[in-house]
Amino acid sequence: MIFPYHQNSLSFKAENFNLVDFERALPYHFSVLTFLHWRHLSAAALIIFTILFFPYAAHARENALNILYTGALKGELEPCGCSPETQSGGLARLSGYISTNRQQLSPYILVDAGNTFAEATAQGRFKNEAILRSFALMGYDAAALPSNKAIKAVKSGLKINISSDEKLVKKGMINILLSGKPVAELKAVKGWDVIISSSGEELNEPVASGKAVIVSGFPKGQKLGILSLKLNSKGKVIGSSHRWQALKQDVAEDPIVRAVLKDYDQKVAALLKEEELKPVSGGPYLGSESCIECHQPYVESWKATKHSAAFATLERVGKSKDPECVKCHTVGFGEECGFLSLKATPVLANVQCESCHGPGREHAADFSPLRPVGIEVCLKCHTHENSPLFDFQKYYEKIKH
Ligand code: HEC
Ligand code: HEC
Ligand code: HEC
Ligand code: HEC
Known about the structure:
Number of domains: 2
Order of helices and strands: HEEHHEHEEEHEEEEEHHHHHHHHH
Mean pLDDT: 84
Structural class: alpha/beta
Largest sheet: 6 strands, mixed
Low-confidence stretches: 1-61, 148-156
CATH class of the largest domain: Alpha Beta
Bound molecules: heme C
Shape: elongated
Strand content: 5-15%
Number of helices: 14
CATH topology of the largest domain: Purple Acid Phosphatase, chain A, domain 2
CATH architecture of the largest domain: 4-Layer Sandwich
Helix content: 25-40%
Number of strands: 11
Strand order of the largest sheet: 1-5-6-7-9-8
């Protein structure tokens, strides 16, 4: 498979990747990004812009332009993979999809409407860095990153003006606004041909408002929006059609973006290093080996369930040191003396007896009663997002002792 836009891509091994590198990696004029710095990424304000040279003009079909858009990514690099058949999205698939279908999609522009980043925690910053690297590799033409900088208009070939400032409509150009406002408010905004919201609203169909078409990026990048504009010979918009492209497991991943995500995993894992050195002992959790002497048959039946291999599952996908994953695949993560890492707390890996029955130290000493286990215990981990097919009766049959 050929991924054409990697020819002049950046080296993502560089430790100090920043927005300036991002700019260099972009094929188009993108100077406004030079002014951005990491500290701006935490700012809630959503104001940006961009204008570009349109490189396809020379050989473009005269009457069409595809706008490929994302928005409201909110730091999501990819779905967790807890329910691989149903989950959709992910930067590696997005890149794979665009690159394998480049021909059919051209001429196109690729834009992100904002609300792109995770919170600026240590892990969140690594996510944001991975997003920017992936955007650069994919050749995003514009992204509504947090900044206060204004825009310069540049034109060439098909004249397209992309901005996140409502006032910067340009005469004689195709005007595309990127906005964090909800669709209802955007109906009052005049002068734009296309408005792309990153409010996180799910729109099945675009909303028509005067001459504008309003669309909204699918939450967490689960689907790619494709708005096809019909243009007359002067490059004026005369119609449009829209579709959602799902990004399910049948979409081939781009290995280069996957490498960026792997790099992210390693950085997240490294965050654990210092914490791992703190000894953990004497907490309320014992681990299932301690239950064997009195409950052997239960331990046998548990070992036959997928719960007993839940940590190996994370190791298989390279996520065993990611706190966002570990919390449901172990015992007591985030609690005093609960699971911390395989090194620090090896006996608490996997979903074990005490994930359901609660801490067992007192019980093992004096047989005091443990908490009853009902559906509410399952739902802490079998959430709608992570286990969309969860059905208590059916699932209970598979794990009952
Ligand atoms: C601490 C979190 C947690 C709790 C609590 C929990 N589960 Fe799970 N469960 C998981 C994880 C994680 C997996 C996936 C394991 C794997 O495949 O590696 C799983 C998998 C399963 C599976 C296997 C699904 C399959 O594809 O066959 C069943 C069945 C199941 N759980 C039932 C239950 C029931 C019923 C309860 C409540 C009585 C429950 N679980 C409570 C985390 C939990
Ligand atoms: C809110 C709890 C929760 C979190 C957080 C969570 N998981 Fe899971 N995971 C589950 C449950 C529950 C299942 C079983 C789902 C089912 O079979 O219905 C599961 C199953 C899985 C599976 C097995 C899927 C299969 O059937 O092949 C993988 C892989 C997995 N999770 C990876 C991850 C990764 C990676 C992360 C972090 C990005 C993560 N999980 C975070 C609860 C969670
Ligand atoms: C996925 C959740 C889950 C896990 C993991 C789990 N159990 Fe249970 N267990 C239950 C449920 C549900 C019941 C029945 C309801 C109840 O007693 O609260 C139960 C019942 C029991 C009972 C009482 C049976 C009876 O007849 O009164 C024992 C003893 C027990 N479990 C021990 C264990 C041991 C030991 C382990 C670990 C090897 C374990 N369980 C792991 C959910 C779980
Ligand atoms: C030294 C023996 C011993 C050990 C170790 C032990 N148990 Fe028990 N457990 C018992 C006895 C005895 C009962 C029955 C108590 C009763 O019926 O009052 C029991 C009952 C239970 C029950 C069902 C009644 C209840 O309180 O919910 C569960 C669940 C259970 N044990 C889980 C565990 C788990 C989980 C572990 C390991 C963390 C464990 N036990 C370790 C002796 C033990």
